[in-house]
Amino acid sequence: MKSCNNCGLPETYETFEFDENQVCNVCTQHKTKNTKVDWNKKREIFESLIDEYRGKGDYDCIVPFSGGKDSTYVLYKVVKEHNLKPLVISFDHGFYRDVHLKNVERTLKFLGVDYHLFKPNMKVVGRTMLESLKRKGDFCWHCHCGVFAYPMSMAVKLNIPLIIWGESVAEYTGYYDFEEGKWEMQDEEAFNRHINLGISAEDMAGFLGSDISERDLRPYQYPKLKDLEKIGYKSLQYGTFFKWDSLQNANLIKKEIGWEQDEVEGLPEEFSYEKLECRVNGVRDWIKYIKRGFGRTAQSVAREIRNGRLDIEDGKKMVFENDGKRPESLDYFLKILSITEDEFMDIVKKHQISPWNFDEKNIQKGKKLHDQDSWDDSKILK
Ligand SMILES: [Zn+2]
Questions:
Q1: Cα(258) to centroid(ligand 1), Å
Q2: In this structure, are 311 and 363 located in the same domain?
């Protein structure tokens, strides 16, 4: 496979285009981010935007919150630096881990904020997981849609028009760039373009048959534009106004809040501040490896190369040692969804992206996470 001469990620990476030096468009965007963007001006724009919403209702804004490093950082900034009173909203994807839950509790107490948690019906979650895995080779439809649509619906219901999200998607894909003078709205266009896998809640209801109705899938449905416009909504990504650096952000919340990292499958310890909030992230990355030939370590390495903290040779070594191992959490995943490993492999292999060709003969096993044996593994699909 062809890969980027700067960051090492392969041509199968989503939205990748190479220039004449075989450097990818995301690396080029990062050059713009680091050299051409006037971040002071962006900060001023952000501050004048939020001033319009301050003190108008019970809350100044909604902060959609997973409790991972990104949303914890944004929440910290919103409260401590911008002096806003947020309503913090979590859509629980059903796979939270213990260290993560402690981080959430600690963060909420430290910042002194009101918290709204929504936990969806796990039987419905299980049905959507298997359906989206079969159709798109991605079982996370419920998480993508719930995390993005649910806080927007709450914004409408509670009449809180300002919503503040985390990093810009321009950090890691070519869907948007850091173009001067523009800010990226986390809106319906973005939702349909790169979040819902091309499957709306109405489509999903149609796929799942008569026992699951559109009503059951309401938490995954993006609110109507006219309803959002009625409240004068503004859905902003913090990372388009402030220069984003995941590592520095993680270090800040560790130091200030006592936020802790945890072991993550397929990632070396240096990067284990990422995605520790999800039990099945290892399966998600394993699927990515089977489909596209790279895992999460390759993505983290690329980010660190772009930030000038790692060279490509050391990065390649880390990728070789960590990516592409069968995660132990796959056993948990197969059990709760009542499918066999052969069925799983048959589905995922159908979604391979050419020219990558997954080699099934030489599969190495990954290391089991320290907390896996404590996860509730009741079946959510029979
Ligand atoms: Zn690149």
A1: 33
A2: yes
